[in-house]
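debug: dumping io for the single-chain case to check the tokenizer round-trip. Nothing else runs in this session.
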Amino acid sequence: MQNTTQSTRPLRILIAGDTFAPDVNGAAKFATRLAAGLSQRGHEVHVVASAHGRGKEGTRVEEHEGARFTVHRLRSILYPGHDWLRFAEPWRARANAASLLDALKPDIVHFQSHIIIGRAFAAEAPKRGIRLVATNHIMFENLMDHSNIPHAVHGPVVNRLWADAARIFEKCDAVTTPTKRSADFLERHTGLSDVQAISCGLIASDYTVSESRNDPSVVFVGRVTSEKQIDVLIEAFAQISEDLQARLTVIGGGDLIDELGQRTRDLGISERVTLTGIISDADLR
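debug: decoded output
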């Protein structure tokens, strides 16, 4: 039998976040793929996330990205004015975190959002000597477009939110974010140092280059929402000569699909632009 040491044994990893599959957004995709990848490498993975409605809370084994692992769904509430975004009940979050940490005794906690669930684990994990890693996916400046906060006070509100984030992240053993630019931004706005840029990543082998295509093609993949500035892409695409027979495909769901579709009609390029909405990974490939 192979000798298993403390440094090589499989880890018990708890991943916590306010959004997780089946939500479709960058943070949810990152957390889902991370959980699946770690599980496939032989680690014991537990995910803590919001339930998708009343009666759906509880602990069960779920399958995501071809892997099966345990997901603990917390009782949640729908964010006002949003059609799918749910948050775990904040008044229960710390008690839930403490209970799960005492029951599971994970080697490490990795949270993907410090708003509700991550905040609770950041408060409770250090008390138990459990190492804490955070990945920041949030840009408060972008979130203001989706808030009910008056535009005149966006600046002061954003500053307070970054100061609050700094207090949470300072408790962590390591902080990461998906790009070097966002790592630099996070350091400037929180006073943190040594924020690591770790890409959300793709499995490169899932994608191949078609040698048969000759027509120029531009593809955007992501949420169709204001911070992605897809309107700028459409305005730029409208300046490409029709003689090139170029096409633009916008892949993803979001609140601006109808508005952007109307803009392509106004610019007279709707026949060259396709907005697909959400599609499967297989269709994306």
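debug: round-trip ok. The first strand starts at residue 12 and ends at 16.
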